[in-house]
From TrEMBL:
UniProt domain ANTAR: residue ranges: 166-227
Protein name in UniProt: GAF and ANTAR domain-containing protein
Signal peptide residues on this chain, from the entry's feature table: none
One Pfam match: ANTAR
SMART domains reported for this sequence: ANTAR, GAF
Parts of the chain that traverse the membrane: none
Key word Electron transport present: no
InterPro entries: ANTAR (IPR005561), CheY-like_superfamily (IPR011006), GAF (IPR003018), GAF-like_dom_sf (IPR029016), GAF_ANTAR (IPR012074), WH-like_DNA-bd_sf (IPR036388)
Keyword match Kinase: yes
Record keywords, A-Z: Kinase, Transcription, Transcription regulation, Transferase
Gene3D superfamilies, A to Z: 3.30.450.40, Winged helix-like DNA-binding domain superfamily/Winged helix DNA-binding domain (1.10.10.10)
Length: 252
């Protein structure tokens, strides 16, 4: 059952704090279908480095038609994302603005299309794209429905921006943890080489770096192998049976 615009916006405010970015994107697409009369399939397009991609969708047809636009190099969702504007096709069978795309959409049963560019406060360009099949109850996406989609897009942009910011914070924290772990294992490997070869810390690091370059492998991987070798050797020595000489008491 459709939620309506107000309820969908309220739901948008609830989904950011406890869900990953991918889940937020999917929920935005689902809510748009429920908030906008006539929106049968919906997709979310984001531009990354100027290249468009569909990051979420409700209905496979929306994703397929997005990909058609990307392959052509133009279309309403791409143009809306680039311009931050709203583009609509009232009748795909009679559209002259995007004839190749509209012909494909018409063959797939899509009657009208509206793409709304996302507001861009964080320099994230994108669009929400609504596809209407032209059902009797909703023959097209009306001007009123377009206004609802534009209002929804404004709130969705905030939700997506917040979710993306949280995801970036989490990614930075993960990267920091990986960096700290890498540094720790490199220091351990340097200690192993210093003890094994009687070299100082700088020479031990040079040995690791040289092995990394010659093997075309990350320094962390080489360091892990050095440490793992020591662990295996120690474990093997600990589990080896005692020889008779080792097991004989001093008095015997």
């Amino acid at each position: 059952m459709p939620l309506g615009l107000e309820a969908a916006v309220v739901e948008l405010g609830r989904i950011v704090a406890d869900q990953p970015l991918t889940a937020v994107l999917r929920r935005v697409a689902d809510l748009a279908v429920q908030a906008v009369p006539g929106a049968d399939d919906v997709s979310v397009t984001l531009l990354r480095g100027g290249k468009p991609s569909t990051v979420a969708f409700h209905g496979d047809l929306a994703a397929d038609l997005d990909e058609r636009q990307y392959s052509l190099g133009y279309g309403p969702c791409v143009a809306a994302a680039q311009a931050g504007a709203t583009l609509r096709i009232d009748d795909t069978a009679r559209d002259d603005a995007f004839p190749d795309f509209s012909a494909t959409a018409a063959r797939r049963g899509v009657r009208s299309v509206v793409s709304v560019g996302l507001p861009d406060p964080d320099r994230r360009q994108g669009s929400i794209n609504a596809y209407c099949f032209g059902r009797p109850e909703h023959p097209s996406i009306t001007v009123e429905a377009q206004l609802a989609l534009e209002q929804f897009a404004a709130f969705a942009s905030v939700a997506l921006g917040n979710a993306a910011a949280l995801a970036e914070v989490g990614e930075r924290a993960d990267n920091l943890q990986i960096a700290l772990q890498s540094r720790a294992v490199i220091e351990q490997a340097k200690g192993v080489l210093m003890g094994r070869h009687g070299v100082d810390a700088d020479e031990a690091f040079t040995m690791l770096a040289t092995q990394s370059q010659h093997g075309n492998r990350k320094l962390r991987v080489v360091a892990e192998e050095v440490v793992a070798e020591v662990v295996r050797t120690a474990a093997a020595a600990a589990s080896a049976p005692l020889s008779p000489s080792r097991g004989r008491s001093p008095s015997s």
